[in-house]
Structure of Transketolase:
Amino acid sequence: MTATGATFPIDLGAYQKLTLDPTVPTLTADQKAALQANIQLCRDAIVFFTATGAAHGVGGHTGGPYDTVPEVMILDALFRGKPESFVPIFFDEAGHRVGTQYLMATLNGDLPAEQLMSYRLAHSKLPGHPELGLTPGVKFSSGRLGHMWPYVNGVAFANPGKTVFCLGSDGSQQEGNDAEAARLAVAQHLNVKLIIDDNDVTIAGHPSKYLPGYSVKRTLEGHGLKVLEVNGEDIDALYAAICEAVNTPGPIAVICKRPMCPGIEGLEGSNHGHDVISVKLALQYLESRGHSAAVAHLNGIQKPKQDYTFLGISDKWDSNRNVFGDAVNGMLAKMSETERKEKVLVVDSDLEGSCGLKKIHDAYPEVFIPSGIMERGNLSAAAGFGMEQGKQGIFATFAAFLEMCISEITMARLNYSNLLCHFSHSGIDDMADNTCHFGINNFFADNGLDDGYDTKLYFPADANQMKACVEAIFFDPGLRFIFSTRSKTPILLDSSGNELYGGNYTFVPGKDEVVREGTAGYIVAVGDAVYRALDAVERLKQEGLDVGLINKSTLNVIDEDAMAKIGKSPFVMVVEAFNRRTGLGSRFGSWLLERGYTPKFAYYGTHEEGCGGLWEQFPHQGIDPVGIIDKVKKLV
């Protein structure tokens, strides 16, 4: 899983540790030549080691760190010239640009270059967003997109007289956090300098097309910032603008206009450059640059595979997040175009391809709103559309961002909205982005009072149940939250080997599903923990321990019949990928006690920061089949 024994095939020792003085805003010929050489070296290195993520199957992001190399090289030289004048940290609110942090940690001697070839692999300590305290040389945790500028304002308060930089992007600037940060920075005359990569690209497309009228420059000027706009690939102009920003007190933004992935054939100007470069294009790029050893290393990488054979499942695996879009389309197909436009509004947040919404966009564009990285506002817009009886809004994003929308969810509830939310990337499976992108606090969506407006949380266990769930609840009033995982999940089988949720199965909201009967006790599992628990149950039965399994697909409704059944059994064990502090297990024991049931009880979920990688996250938390079997044996 690691690149132990391999030598980093690009000579990072060629990096020239340049020193620049911001009071001299022009570059000498030698300084410019050194900068240009450093830029090319670092861009080559970023293409290579991020491409190892593509080759290993763990993904990653190439375009962001590749784009911003010129400004990072300049900042590095400035930090070296007058360290006492700066907070020498490359704060970056586009956390997926983590390649920048890893490369600079390597150039500064904190991280072995060879470790870069394990980019995003499990246990490599190189997750998809920077995490303070995990990776040597990384000096901050970025969290999610658009969250750093407010934090950097506080760093500026703590370091009066010093200049603090925050690298940004046109995508991160769409988040509402930055509007608030801008107002505070201007009001308090904070010495924060923003350097913004404005390449008109986000995941789903081009902001100039899906948000016409949006301008980073005009937005920041409207908040009162001085803004300098330059061609980010013009080194002389970029350096002069950064020097002007440093020499001018107060908050200033330097906006770097450039295409995405300049100079990379096949990616330049494309939104595909936002994610990891394909191995094919990386090989093409590296060959053109003469990096034969890097090419050989990429060609020699074999993608790690999970070789565990799960019991109780079919050979078919499917992506519930995409099945959601198919299922919604099935319901929309039953309406006329006029009815669809009158009754349904689907609002995206730049993640349509990741949440199944692209299928809706392609089939029924008349009900689809492509929107930016503005989760709070987009959820509220969908909820507002669903305020009137007979209408409903549909909204989707990653589950990690649910935490950002709690207030808006409350507003939707207080206004009796009809809102169907799909939060994909729930739990921890396949999360090479790691801890900050875990979707583990989904129960926060159920934040109303007992007598409040109806809210239900659903987590279908496979594609068949996802389709049935959408069909059953699509026209229900109230707030409905459907969760899915980033990873594919297998089709579950019953004890006779037939599809558990196939045929004439009908999803019943609030009903807990008995997957396997058992006399020794019951495991209650959620979402993608169900098939892992099913494997554990099948293996335990083979050993003579007759354990049953419950799929609790409606998370926040108590099924009294199921509760009586399992409450009278010898033990109950809850298994989930949600946060152990806030998930189902944290309340299930109370539900049992309130009804007078006292079986042996235990609950297991996500309780540690992530290990990176993909399926490795489950065994890291001890909730894979091996971990489940071990815990059951200790409980009985």
Q: What stands out?
A: The two ends are 36 Å apart (CA to CA). Residues 622 and 630 are 9 Å apart (CA to CA). Residues 12-300 form a domain with the Rossmann fold fold (CATH 3.40.50.970). Residues 29-56 form the longest helix (28 residues).
